[in-house]
Amino acid sequence: MKKRLSSYLGALAAGAALLTVTACGGNATATPAAETSTITVEHAQGSTANVPVNPEKVFTFDLGVLDTMDALGVEPAGVPEAAYPDALKKYSDAKYTKIGSLKEPDFEAVSAGDPDLIIISGRTAGAYEELSKIAPTIDLSIDAAKPMGSFKEQAGKLGTIFNKSGEVEEKLAAVDTTVADTKAKAATAGKGLIVLTSGGEVTAYGAGSRFGIIHDVLGVPTAADVKSEGSHGEAISFEYIKQANPDLLYVINRDTAIGTEGAANPILDNELVQSTNAARNGKVINLDPAGWYIVGYGLNNVKAMVDAVAGSVA
């Protein structure tokens, strides 16, 4: 599990030859200015890695991290094969080394690419040991139990690694403002239910889940006691949705996210769902599938996620 960060970015002089930097998420010790600068980063594997500051060749398997790098103007060298959303479509170009899929690294391609830093997350967490043999590797998974705090820790670490701390703080402050405004409006906007559609099945997600930011951070009250654990949801029926009778129904279409289905929400077009308050009042909110299911927590994408919920409670 991730170690909780104690503070935002800071620097403490510890003598003429040594500089210690504390990033959101862990302590980072830099070498004297005359040498190549490195920092020690604590990460989700419960360990640390010595990481170069401003690494020239970065491989990332996490699209949320990629989204943050993109927001900061930092170019990766290697990315996974994926169904990239429009905002990140350029990374499908062959100029970026393809290093495997979102779940399975291509170890030969990674090794041949000789990266200075490898960044992984939940989908590739199991490959940590093997990847660490190739290059410094850090696991920047988001903790679903504290999504926004975990995201800020992740962004803070990336800001330190790429010397972009000021830009990270500025962007996070803007998100915080929108979050506060949204939370104030959500309190009286009615109860919400989050569902994921996939291959004709429907799964509900509640507080503390991978999409729990809607309840946990943005303050939308829950319409049902969803039985889920961590990032996993609860398989439900249309009758469940009718009984929960949400005022706000947030829908994520996994099939669209992974490129196997073009229609928005075909299986939700039925009488049971249409009888809910959400459907009757035009409050079935189709969230951006790729942004919510594939990308997740990145500096640009989190803003888009928050904005989508803000629009639903306005």
Automatic annotation (TrEMBL):
Where the record annotates domain Fe/B12 periplasmic-binding, the positions are: 57-314
Matches recorded under SUPFAM superfamilies: Helical backbone' metal receptor
Q: Where does it primarily localize?
A: other
Signal as a keyword of this entry, yes or no, is yes
Q: Known InterPro entries for this protein?
A: ABC_transptr_periplasmic_BD, Bact_iron-sidero_bind, FatB
| Any GO CC annotation of this UniProt entry | outer membrane-bounded periplasmic space
Among Pfam families, the record links this protein to: Peripla_BP_2
Name its GO BP terms in alphabetical order.
Answer: iron coordination entity transport
Which keywords has UniProt assigned to this entry?
Signal, Transport
Q: Residues of the signal sequence?
A: 1-23
Task: Give the UniProt subcellular location, in the record's own words.
Answer: Cell envelope
Q: Which family does it belong to?
A: Belongs to the bacterial solute-binding protein 8 family.
Q: Know the name of this protein?
A: Iron ABC transporter substrate-binding protein
Per the UniProt record, the lineage of the source organism begins with: Bacteria, Bacillati, Actinomycetota, Actinomycetes, Micrococcales
